[in-house]
Design brief:
binds thymidine-5'-diphosphate; globular; single chain; alpha/beta
């Protein structure tokens, strides 16, 4: 028995975490067995690596950063994602490999084929069944991040233009594999977005609603 692996991606401030919670709650209310998880993190070693890689006080070069995200992902896949999928559950993850392609390759400038190869190795070639990409103008997303008033992590303090490159990469990833992605304009009302995602899961993945 294999479950369903759904990933949410998007630049910082696109409302991703809100949608992860809303979609997971809706699926649970219907009776689905749902595991909600996140990257970097989602398992003991990966959560420790998250604290390290996002700490604004730590200097980390781009290659090391890429490998830490991939190492965290390897632990997350082995301890959290695969066991849940093998038990037939729905796994909803806030970020996955697409974030490394967007942030470490498009954002930091590492070669995309290298980032993909490192991550293929880390995940054993595991791909999401569906990746939902929340897309929002970078200036609107930036204003939302400022409004939240949270501590700025290492990635969020990257130079101007970084978030634009991240956004463009997610759009390119959708275009390259449209059958495995759902692109959502994130300026819409949150409830409208949740409904679109649930309808897509019902229509294309046979998820009972
Ligand atoms: P996230 O938890 O989504 O940020 P927040 O809770 O502040 O919305 O992700 C943390 C940051 O890590 C985010 O800026 C994206 C970045 N990131 C990468 O650069 N590469 C990766 O592979 C992953 C998973 C995240």
């Amino acid at each position: 028995m294999t479950g369903l692996f759904v990933v949410f991606e998007g630049a910082d401030g696109t409302g991703k975490s809100t949608q992860v919670a809303a979609v997971a709650n809706a699926l649970r209310e219907i009776g689905h067995d749902v595991v909600v998880t996140r990257e970097p993190g989602g398992s003991d070693v990966a959560e420790t690596l998250r604290a390290l890689v996002l700490d604004p006080a730590t200097h980390i070069d781009d290659m090391t950063e890429t490998l830490i995200f991939a190492a965290a992902r390897a632990d997350h896949v082995a301890k959290t994602i695969l066991p849940a999928l093998n038990a037939g559950k729905v796994v909803v993850s806030d970020r996955f490999v697409g974030s490394s392609i967007a942030y470490q390759s498009a954002g930091r400038g590492l070669r995309q084929d290298a980032v993909i190869e490192i991550n293929d190795y880390a995940t054993g070639g595991l791909h999401p069944d569906l990746t939902v990409v929340l897309d929002l103008d970078a200036s609107v997303a930036g204003a939302r991040r400022d409004d939240r008033g949270e501590m700025i992590d290492r990635m969020e303090s990257a130079p101007d233009g970084f978030q634009d490159a991240v956004r463009a990469s997610f759009l390119t990833q959708v275009e390259a594999a449209p059958d495995r992605h759902l692109l959502i304009p994130a300026a819409q009302a949150p409830k409208t977005i949740t409904a679109q995602i649930l309808t897509h899961l019902e229509t294309n993945y046979g998820v009972k609603l």
